[in-house]
Amino acid sequence: MSLSSEYFMPTTKGNPHGSRFYSSRSCLRSHRDLNSAIQPVPIRPQTLNLSEKAISSIDYALHHGWAQSTLTNYGSAVDRFLAFCSSEGVPPEFQLPANEFVLCAFAASSAGIHAGSTARNNIAALKAWHIAQNAQWNGSSRLHYVLAGVERLAPQSTKRPPRPPINAVMLRALYDALDFSNSRDVVVFAAACVAFWGQCRLGEILPTSSLPNACKHLPTRRHISRSSRNQRSTTLRLPRTKTKVSGEDVVLVTQSKPIDPRTALEMHLIANRCGDTAPLFAYRSGPNGAVILTKAKFLERCNEIWKQCGYPRTTGHSFRIGGTTELLLAGVSPDVVKAMGRWSSDVFHKYWRSLEDLAPLHAEFIN
Question: Which GO molecular-function terms appear in the entry (predicted)?
């Protein structure tokens, strides 16, 4: 397999990946090291000479083209591909750019073992790796059908049932069991109501750790505002979301008490005065001052209560799909729910729950 030197100029003889990549496969685990590991091979058209500044700016922008969590997952997938190539004796020149037959073989290695989504995610990671390396991508129609075959051959054990959504009854159970003389329970309830009615991903409002760096893209108290046209809604500005680096707005409207998100948020802000620049869901904890509510601590407290009520263990995304389902079941127009939840059209329908209940609301007796 050969490619024109106009497009590919290996940095290391016999190794089109460059020596840096093979120096430490473990470096693919972290965000910073993955950026270094997948740094594009200095491949430039021989007829065009750009300044080093221009080339560096491309590298800099490219390294920020993927979210940190995505890079971590993709790095692991590239590791798996390289291990597969090693076990099959695939020569380096057929690994990057990956030969079409090798891609199909790697995808097919998941047949009867893994879920189809696992194979598709692995291939998506390899495609991103090729983009970062400025290498030709040799995906094909055959690869498409191999992935479809892996999907059909996935063992039953890999097919997880849909995650159960949170519902308003569960929020009421939280309210009944939490201790509102405890500042931590106050913030837990506020976060639950905002995540549910605002159709939020938990990662948009709660950090994975209490380290300052983990909170830099999360909302603070300054990101809350009331509508300038009426007093019937509260807007929470999310500085950054999974799909919008520039951020998005969450509009909270009044609901029946005691699970009204606006009231719950107001209770929290009064009980936990932490300053305008503090993370929105920080709370007071005695002499220790402000403590940041993390995603893990939040879910731990919620599941502790719900387990006692007989509910299955829930995950963070259950709040988002739960809020969506609750609004749809209440008869709110799907277009309004979609806009309020900041859903893209395809994903929006994927996460609908209780379709047997929704269908009569919108399609019964149409003729």
Answer: DNA binding
pLDDT in tens, 46-60: 567 888 898 888 888
Question: Each residue of 274-300: pLDDT tens digit?
Answer: 878 888 999 988 766 788 999 999 999
User: Who contacts 82 (Cβ-Cβ below 8 Å, separation ≥6)?
Assistant: 25, 95
Q: Which of 71, 140, 49 is nearest to 102 (CA)?
A: 140
Give the H/E segment covering residue 236: strand 233-238
Q: How many CB atoms lie within 10 A of CB 350?
A: 11
The residues facing 95 across adjacent strands are 98
Query: Can you tell me the distance from the alpha carbon of 63 to that of 75, in angstroms, rounded to the nearest whole number?
Result: 13
pTM for this model (two decimals): 0.69
CB-CB neighbours of 362 under 10 Å: 11
Low-confidence ranges of the chain (pLDDT < 70): 1-47, 162, 287-288, 346, 348, 350-358, 361-367
